[in-house]
């Protein structure tokens, strides 16, 4: 599925290179995959959901869960295609971020996962921390996580993202390693290359840096 994922990302203009990006984790990198560019194209978003569904179709799944915001689209399309493949009604719901940066079910969605088999889908995995928070939210709500799957694994060492780190069985549709730097050791920062504030979390990073002065 590696080639199919890359083609969809390229078609939608989701891969950005040769700039200075900031990730959710706070890491810096010269390349960024902007899933929101993919989600702007329903046809491509649907195809990505279909790839998730094809990969996980042999599993017993009742509900697909993803973290808001972008993950909402992935959960919906994956649930849709799984419903078609398995000829059953599979739900697509999401968790939301709490004030302390954890994940939890709101809107009464916890009732949809209690006692159910859950597939967790995510866009890009860097460290695995975000997915783990969703896994914990599902378990807290009484759900059984049968699989956690990401669109891409962009960790510099993809094999380092293990089931133990995720807290559940994990795999990805593709591996697109990106060189990541701590802000304190970032060579782009040292060369005064401007932070990209259009894609990624550069804008928030710059605002936080400004407020810290």
Characteristics of this structure?
Rossmann fold, 8 strands, two-stranded antiparallel ribbon, globular, alpha/beta, six-stranded mixed β-sheet, 8 helices, 213 residues, single chain, 36% helix
CATH class: Alpha Beta
- Name the average pLDDT: 94
* CATH architecture title: 3-Layer(aba) Sandwich
| Strand element count | 8
**Helix content, binned percent:** 25-40%
Poorly predicted segments: none
Helical element count? Answer: 8
* SSE sequence, one letter per element: HEEHHEHEEEHEHEHH
The N- to C-terminal Cα distance equals 46 Å
Hey, roughly how much beta strand do the residues contain? 15-25%
Say what the CATH topology is.
Answer: Rossmann fold
- Major sheet size, sense and barrel closure: 6 strands, mixed
What class would the helix/strand composition place it in?
Answer: alpha/beta
Rg, Å, rounded: 17 Å
Would you kindly provide a written description of the structure presented here, covering whatever features stand out?
- By secondary structure, the chain is α/β, with parallel strands linked by helices.
- The relative contact order is 0.18.
- The protein has a single domain (2-180), classed as Rossmann fold (3-Layer(aba) Sandwich).
- It has helices at residues 2-11, 35-39, 42-56, 71-86, 129-140, 163-166, 187-190, 202-211, and strands spanning 15-22, 28-33, 63-67, 91-97, 103-104, 117-125, 144-153, 170-172.
